[in-house]
Amino acid sequence: MRRLLRRFFLGKPLPTKALREERLTNQQALAVFGSDALSSTAYATEEILLVLVGLGTLALSASLPISLAIAGLVVIVALSYREVVHAYPQGGGVYNVAKTNLGETPALLGASSLIIDYILTATVSIAAGVAALTSAFPELFPYRVLIGILGIVLIMWMNLRGARSSGQIFSYPTYFFIAIMLITIGYGFLRFLTGTLPTTPPPVESAEPLQAIGLFILLRAFSAGCTALTGLEAISNGVKAFKSPESVGAAKTMARLAALLIAFLLGITFLAYQMKIVPAQDETVVSQIARTIFDNSPIYYVFQIGTFLILFLAANTPYADFPRLAAMQARDGYWPKQFSNLGSKLVFSQGILALSAVSILLLIVSGGYVHALIPLYAVGVFLGFSLTQLGMIVHDRRMLRAKMDDRRQNVRRLIINSIGFAATTVVFFIVLYSKFFDGAFLILPMIALLFFAMRRVRRYYNNVDKELSISTTQFLNVPSRSILAVVLISKLDRRAVEGARVARGLNPASVCAFHVTFEKEEGDHVKDVWEVLFNDIPIEVRLDEFREITPTILDYFSSVERRWHGKIVAVVPMLVPQQPFREFLHNQTAKRIIEAIRRQSGSNVEIYEVPVRVETGEKV
Amino acid sequence: MRRLLRRFFLGKPLPTKALREERLTNQQALAVFGSDALSSTAYATEEILLVLVGLGTLALSASLPISLAIAGLVVIVALSYREVVHAYPQGGGVYNVAKTNLGETPALLGASSLIIDYILTATVSIAAGVAALTSAFPELFPYRVLIGILGIVLIMWMNLRGARSSGQIFSYPTYFFIAIMLITIGYGFLRFLTGTLPTTPPPVESAEPLQAIGLFILLRAFSAGCTALTGLEAISNGVKAFKSPESVGAAKTMARLAALLIAFLLGITFLAYQMKIVPAQDETVVSQIARTIFDNSPIYYVFQIGTFLILFLAANTPYADFPRLAAMQARDGYWPKQFSNLGSKLVFSQGILALSAVSILLLIVSGGYVHALIPLYAVGVFLGFSLTQLGMIVHDRRMLRAKMDDRRQNVRRLIINSIGFAATTVVFFIVLYSKFFDGAFLILPMIALLFFAMRRVRRYYNNVDKELSISTTQFLNVPSRSILAVVLISKLDRRAVEGARVARGLNPASVCAFHVTFEKEEGDHVKDVWEVLFNDIPIEVRLDEFREITPTILDYFSSVERRWHGKIVAVVPMLVPQQPFREFLHNQTAKRIIEAIRRQSGSNVEIYEVPVRVETGEKV
Fold first, then answer.
1. Does the complex come out with an ipTM higher than 0.95?
2. Which domains does chain B have, with CATH numbers?
3. Does A555 contact chain B (CB < 8 Å)?
C-alpha cells in the first residue's frame, strides 16, 4: 500500500548509477538556479526609485548611474564566481571554498548566512506570488496562507520526484518570463527610438527645487538595488547538478544569467526613467511600464502572468541548493546524518522536507505578510560573496606559489578575485549600515545561532565516533553475563502468554513479570490469574496512583538494577495489526514505555519487542 | 528535564483518589458549562433581526413573539434535561441516554452530532473572539490565525492543568459577562420605565408598506434565533464534574443557566425593539444597545470587553465536554483506547490535545474566516436534543412499567419528556429545512462519516480482543523453537560488537550478520573486517542500488524465513545518547527498519533492541 502510494507520487526509484542521467542541461539549470536572481529584476528598480522619490521626482534621474554601478557589480561578481566554479567543480559554493582555504569558522559563517537566505527566499517568494494572485482575485485573500502552503507542497513534490523532472517542469515558466521580459524591453526600446514611447501623466510636481542628493541616500538607493544580485551565487552551490563537464556548463550558464540580469535591470531602469514613472502605492513599476508600453492590450496581462510565475518559482532555487549544501555539511558532520541520505529519486529528500517544513511554519506564523523580510536578504548574500572571494584569493595565491597553472592566467584570476573581494566587502558594509535598522540586525544573531548549532553538532558526532570506534573497545572478550528477563504485562491476554514464552526462550538465569495497575482490584485479579497460569514466574504488581506508568516502570527497573548485577532484558509484547494504518489504535502505551527505558540515562536495560500479530480485518 | 518541564507547565500530578476534590462547585460549573450557551445570547437576537429586516423595518416587531417562543423552548428543553441529569448522574448526555434506551445506532448518531458541534464551537468561538479583537486593533489583523492558535493553546493549557484550575480561572470572565449583561439590561429597563430610553435615529424608511410576513420567513427567523439554545445540553454531558451529590448540583445549575439565557434573550430583544435598533454592517446589535443606553460612556467599553471575553471563552465548554464524551466512548471501544487514559492531572489529556489539534487545523485551513460555519451548529444540536428526549421517553415508560418510583412523578416526567421530544424534533426539521442550503447539508455527511468510523473501530477492537483472549490460545504448551539470531550492522563500531555479543547470549541455534551497503567497496570492506573480528558468525552483505534499505532488509528476512523454520530474532543495536534531546541525531535509520519489520504482514521476525550508550556530553 505504502509502497504503491510512494510509487504513484514519486515515480519509479532510481538506481545510484543513474546519478549521471539525473543531471540538468544548461537550459534547465539556468531555469532552476536562475529563477531566484531573475525574479529580483521584477522589483530591484522599484526599490531604487522608492528611496530616491523621497527627495522629489527630479532625483529619480540618479537611478541610471546607480543601476550602471549595480550592473558593474554583477559583472565583477559573475567573473569571480566563474573562477569558483572552475576551481570547485564539486559545488558547495562559499562553504567549500571557505572550508578549504579559510578554515572551519568562515566556512560555517558562510554556510549559515546562505541557509538563512535560502529559507527566506523560499518563504518570501511564495508569499509574493500569492500576494500577486490575491491582488488579481481578492476573494482568495482569506485563503492566502493555505494557497501558500499548497504552493510549497507543489514545489516540494516536484523536487522530491527528482532533479530532472523538476528542471523540466519549472523551466517553462522561467523561459516564459525571460521571453516576455525581452519582448517588453525590446518593444519599449523600439518605441523610444521611433519617438513614440508614451510617458505617464507627470504627477503634481512638488514646488521645491531638487535637493542635493546626499551620499547616504545614494548609498541607500544603491544597496536597495543590490537585491538584484541575490541568487547570483546559486549556480556555484550546485555545480554537481550540471551535465559533465560540470564546470564548463556552470560557467557558461553563469555568464548567460549575468547577461540577462544586466539587460533586464538596465532596460527597466532606462524605460522607467524615459517614461517618467514614479513608484505608486497600488501598482508595481514593471507593471506600469508594461501597461503603458502595450497600451493596456492583452499582452500586458501575459506580462503580468509571467511576473507572477517567476516570483513564485524563485522559491525553487533554494530547493535546488539547500538540500545539496545540507548534505555536504551532513557528510562533514555539521548536520544530522539523515540529511546526507540520497533518496529513492536521487535527491536529498530530508533537506527538501526540512526546507518545506520551515517555510510553511514561517508562512503560518507571519500570516503571509512577509514583505518586511525582504531587506534581510542582501546582508547574508553579500557576506557569502565576500567570504567566497576571500577564500579564492587564498586559493589563487597557493596556486601561484605552487606554479600549478599558467602564471599569467593565475595572476589574472588573482586580480579578478581581489577586485571581487574588495567590491563585495564594501557593498556588504554598505548594505549592513544602510539597512541595519530596517531589520538587518536580526540576521546577525540568526547567523550566529546557526553557526554555533552546527559546530556543536560536529563536536558531538566526533566524540560519539571516538567513543564507538572498535579500537577503544575492550568489550570483545567480556564474558556474557547472566540474564534476568522481565515480562511487562498490560493485560492478561495472548500478549502476556507470548511474552512469557519468549522470556523463557532467552535462556535466562531468572524470569519475572511486572504489571502496573491503576486500581487495586484489577491488580489483584491479574496477580491471581497469573499465578495460576505461570506458577514458575513470580509477578510483581504495582499500584500507580498518578496513572503515569513510565515513572513507575523506570522506578521498578532501577530497583531491579540495584539487586541484579547481570544483564536485564525487558520483554515487551507489541500488537501488530494486519493493516499498518491501524497502528494508532494499538501500542501507544508500549511505545511510550520503550522510549522511556531507552532514554533513561545510566540504565542498561535491554529491550526485546515481541510482535504479537492479529489477523483481524473486520467487515462492517 | 522532561519531567521538570511537565511539572512546571502542569503542576504537581494528582493521585487517583483526588478525583473527588477535582470536582467543580456549582458556581464554577455554571461558568465552565454555561459559557457556550451564554455567549450565544450575544448574537441570537441579531440573527433573528437579520432575517426579519429583509421585509422592511416594520417587520422587526415580530422579533418579540419569536423570542418568546424560543424562551418557551428553553424552558421545555431545560426541564427535560433536568430529568436526564437525574436519571443519568454518570453524565454522557445523549450518548448514554440513547445507548441505554435506544441502542447503538442512535447513540452513535447523537455522539457524532455532538462531537461535530464541539469542534465547531471551539473553532468558531476562538475565531469570533479574535475577530472582535482585530476590529478594535486593526493592526493585529494580519496575525489573527496566530492569535487564534495562541488562544487555543491557552485554553488547552489551562484544561490540561486540571478541571479545577480551569474552572477557577475561567469563571471570572464568565461572571464578569453575566454581571455587565444584567447591568446593561437592568439599566435599559430602568430608562424605559422612566421614559428616558433613547432610540437610534430611525433609518430612511422604505416607502413600501409592511409586507405580509410569510410563514417561511417566520420559521427562518425562529430557527436563526435557536442558536441561543446551543450549549444548553453541555451540563448533561459532564454531570460527573459536579461535586457530590452530582445530579442535584447539575439540575440546579441547569435551572440557573436557563433563567439567565431567557433573561438575556428577552431583555436584549425587548430593548432592541424599543430602541428601534436595526442590524448594521459594522456594529453588532448588542453593541448598539449598550452604546446607546450608556451614551458612549466608558462603561460601554467595559461591556465590549465582557462580550469579547465570553465569545472567546465559549471555546472552553467543548474542552469540558468533548474529552469526557470521548473517554466514555473509548471505554466502550468506539475511540482509540488512549482517549480513556486519565492524565496526571485527572483530565482526559488525549481528548484535550485532539480537540486542540483539530481546531488549530480548521483555523489554519479557513484562514480564520469561520462565520460561514455558524448556521451549521444548530442542526447537530437539535438532533442531539431530539434523540435524548426520545431515549428518555423509553426510559420513563420502563420506569413506569417497573413501578420503580412514585407513579405521579413518573407520569409527570413522561409528559415533560414527550413535550420535549415533540418540540425539539419539530425544531430540528425546521432548522434543517430552513438552513439546508446555507450549509446544513454539509453536516449530515460529516455525522455519517464519524458514525461509521466509530462503529468500525468498535468492531475491530472486538475482533482483536476475541483473537487475543487466552481461552482461544493453544500456545501454552508449544515447545520453544530453535532461534536464529540476525545481527543488523550499520557501521563497524561498538554497536556491531555489542550486537554480536547480545546475539550470542540469546543461546541461539545459529547466529549470522547482515549489512546493507550503497557502494560495493564499502560493503567489501565491512565484510573483510567482520570476518577477522568474528570468524564464527557468517555475514551477508547486500548492495542496494536504490538506497531504500527497508525493502532490502524485508526481502532478506523473507528469504531467511523460507529457509529457517524456527524463531528468527533481529538484533538491532540502538545508540542511546546521554541527553534525550539528542535523539534526533541518531538512530533514524534503525527506527525506520524496526517499524518496517514490525509492520511487515505475515512475518514473524522478533526484534531485539540493544541499547548502546554513549556518555559524551561535549563541551564547546
1. no
2. 23-202+213-459 (1.20.1740.10), 478-613 (3.40.50)
3. no
